[in-house]
Design a protein that fits this description.
The chain is α/β, with parallel strands linked by helices. Helices cover 42% and strands 15% of the residues. It is built from eight helices and seven strands, in the order βαβαβαβαβαβααβα.
């Protein structure tokens, strides 16, 4: 990447006091040239305090907005500060900062606006429950048909976005199920995306909010959301 490009790593975090310091440390160790922003999404624990002790910029939301609201806050910050690239790294430790160069390489090599880290392009030993795998497979097939591009991991939040995508997300970012909905948003807005195989880990602590019982419910709700998104009108950004 161009050494003059300014890159911001956005870490959305909700009650991640047990992992946030380690995540920040890992990003700094592997990407020392990048700035770090933690969006504390109304945590009720010591997430904010621990992030601030680590010396990064912390934005404290007054209450929990969810991943969509947290990430849009981060993109607004990136837009206002003029960053060229923004990278989402979740605060639970699932996203390995050592894989960030793959995202950046994909942005450059494929000339796309967003690079998405996928757990499922190749067998990279990511463990997921059977129901979660089924849900992701169904979403992948439906979304791939809608955007006319093969998408293997629509639930991945490990993404790098260029300036045009940052500006789009700062104004219009899905709130309910942002990861899969963003894929539709990008397609409808005329922006380009590409997936790249990455390794992801299990979260450092806590449990995912998407349990086995909620997997089917989640899948149905996401499908309804992306169909609604498909019929919305978004600004076409090509050529701007």
């Amino acid at each position: 990447m161009n050494r003059l490009e300014r890159i911001l790593v956005i870490i959305p975090a909700y009650n991640e006091e047990d992992s946030i310091e380690k995540v920040i440390e890992d990003v700094r160790t592997n990407c020392p040239q990048m700035d770090i922003l933690v969006v504390n999404d109304g945590s009720t624990d010591h997430t904010s305090d621990k992030a601030k002790v680590s010396g990064v910029v912390v934005l404290d939301l007054p209450f929990n907005l969810g991943i969509g609201g947290g990430m849009q806050t981060g993109y607004k910050y990136a837009d206002e500060k003029g960053y060229d690239i923004a990278i989402q790294v979740d605060g639970d430790g699932q996203h390995d900062p050592r894989e960030i160069p793959k995202l950046l390489h994909t942005l450059e090599e494929k000339k796309v606006d967003v690079a998405i880290g996928s757990r499922f392009i190749t067998d990279l030993e990511y463990k997921a429950t059977t129901m979660r795998r089924v849900g992701i497979t169904v979403l992948s097939k439906v979304i791939s048909i809608m955007v006319r591009q093969k998408i293997t991991d629509p639930a991945s939040g490990f993404r790098a976005s260029r300036r045009k995508a940052i500006q789009l997300f700062a104004v219009n970012y899905p709130q309910d199920y942002p990861e899969p909905e963003v894929v539709v948003l990008l397609s409808k807005s005329g922006l380009k995306m590409a997936e790249v195989p990455v390794k992801m880990s299990q979260r450092y602590s806590g449990e995912s909010s998407i349990t086995k019982i909620r997997s089917i419910y989640y899948m149905v709700k996401v499908l309804l959301a992306i169909f609604v998104d498909w019929f919305k009108k978004y600004p076409l950004l090509i050529g701007e």
